[in-house]
TrEMBL record, chains A, B:
<dbReference type="Pfam" id="PF12900">
    <property type="entry name" value="Pyridox_ox_2"/>
</dbReference>
<dbReference type="InterPro" id="IPR024747">
    <property type="entry name" value="Pyridox_Oxase-rel"/>
</dbReference>
<protein>
    <submittedName>
        <fullName>Pyridoxamine 5'-phosphate oxidase family protein</fullName>
    </submittedName>
</protein>
<dbReference type="InterPro" id="IPR012349">
    <property type="entry name" value="Split_barrel_FMN-bd"/>
</dbReference>
Length: 216, 216
């Protein structure tokens, strides 16, 4: 791997607990960011520490969010609050023969830094087009585009993915040798996100392929 | 609803964005906490703000977490750091006829407060039994119980669910009147967490019903 594809740990992103699960591949970071629709953002506003879920998307090495100009989170992050963004995909429960060896399989990314405000209508629209592309390729050419009023009322923010900790657990239960002979079921109970049958709001319009092919 | 079942908003949990989505029913809060296996916790440690995913469970009106005594998060939260705990269940993408009216259906809870350390081996074990019950009823009578060394190395923390903001979005797209006639597909693309076929680590032990019946 060259420098571009490797995550270089800082004091905040060095994985201390179970360091063997640290993943230093930037492609894995991108996959986690792209596979999830929602991230959680930690930030301080006044006296309070907040953890707020929001939709996110990625362009290159930046993670994007958007929101109403007036929202508490958008105001704090636009003002340069230190932020931590976490994305977690849970893949299963890992049941071991001993109670304390139970664990989970997951892929997670925790990003540190400050958001910057995306300025200019054209740049904001380009960023928001990428969100539409994440929902469904082609959809941005179908939906009615944002007008000046809508664009002005919305803030688009981005944070670099440069400082990120990626952790992947994808394994069978790990019991101590002395527990292996116990007659206790051990294994993985998988969990996954699946797509359900689309619900149509308007029966009088053509159904695009990305809707027809949505459900698993 | 009596006082016990109603969430009383504080300055931190008053829902400012889309207040019509605020949900003041404590039963809904409990359902969100119980339906999710992983929460995200925001807290400060030194100069840094962190957002860290971890497993959680509920007993009564408290949310519980556990972890190694040495973990940065456990140390900060045990020392009384202000915390915000977010749990989000994503139910679907909501596609509207206009780009800016796209949204998501979700159920989310954001809890504020400070964690307290659960003291005493018996009380810790009782709390951890409840985690095992969440994974599978009956499992705590099968797995090898924790021994003194394991229990001593693990911290169990709880935070009251008293100060919580619950937000539920469960609706069809909401377009402006002037957009409703557009020939653009609108509706819901559902997402859900489903259970996959269990993976057995040991073929020589009986398969419990909660494993046999796990997959959807």
């Amino acid at each position: 791997m060259n420098d571009q594809t490797v995550l270089s740990p800082t004091s905040r992103t060095t994985i201390r607990r179970l360091p063997e699960l640290a993943h230093r591949d930037r492609a894995m970071l991108y996959r986690i960011v792209d596979d999830a629709y929602v991230c959680h953002i930690a930030f301080n506003a006044g006296e309070d520490t907040h953890c707020i879920p929001t939709a996110h998307w990625r362009r290159g090495d930046d993670l994007y969010i958007h929101g109403s100009n007036g929202s508490r989170m958008i105001k704090a992050l636009s003002a340069g609050a230190q932020a931590s963004v976490a994305i977690t995909l849970l893949d299963g429960l890992v049941l071991a023969k001993s109670a304390f060896s139970h664990s989970m399989n997951y892929r997670s990314a925790v990003i540190y830094g400050q958001f910057e405000v995306v300025e200019g209508s054209a740049e904001k629209l380009a960023a928001l087009d990428a969100l539409m592309d994440k929902i469904a390729a082609g959809r941005r050419h179908e939906a009615r585009p944002g007008n000046a009023k809508e664009i002005n009322a919305t803030s688009v923010l981005r944070i670099s993915l440069a400082e990120a900790a990626v952790k992947v657990s994808d394994s069978m239960p790990s019991d101590k040798d002395e527990d292996l002979a116990l007659a206790v079921w051990a294994g993985i109970l998988p969990l996954k996100t699946t797509r359900g049958t689309p619900v149509h709001a308007d029966a009088n319009v053509p159904v695009p392929d990305y809707v027809r092919n949505w459900a698993d």
